[in-house]
User: Fold this.
Amino acid sequence: MTLFRNAFVLIFSLVALVWLYTSSQFERSQPCSQAWFDGISKRTGVIDAQGHGPDPGSLEWRSAVEKKLKLPAGSKVSELASDQWCKFIDDYMH
Assistant:
């Protein structure tokens, strides 16, 4: 039982560290900046590992982010082309 508990604690700790690292990297970026677009792309999987997908920040990319987050297409969240959209997504992701 102790071995199981130690393994559980180790796995939980690793997951927490990875989560903290990715969260802190993302939080340092200003919404609608290139670094922010890159962080959102990584967290949502809009851009695949080979770099395929819509251009980060484009309207197509923003629509794909909404779909990945399961937000209704054409939702009244905010206009896709606005800074308010980025702020909404940033708040939603945290």
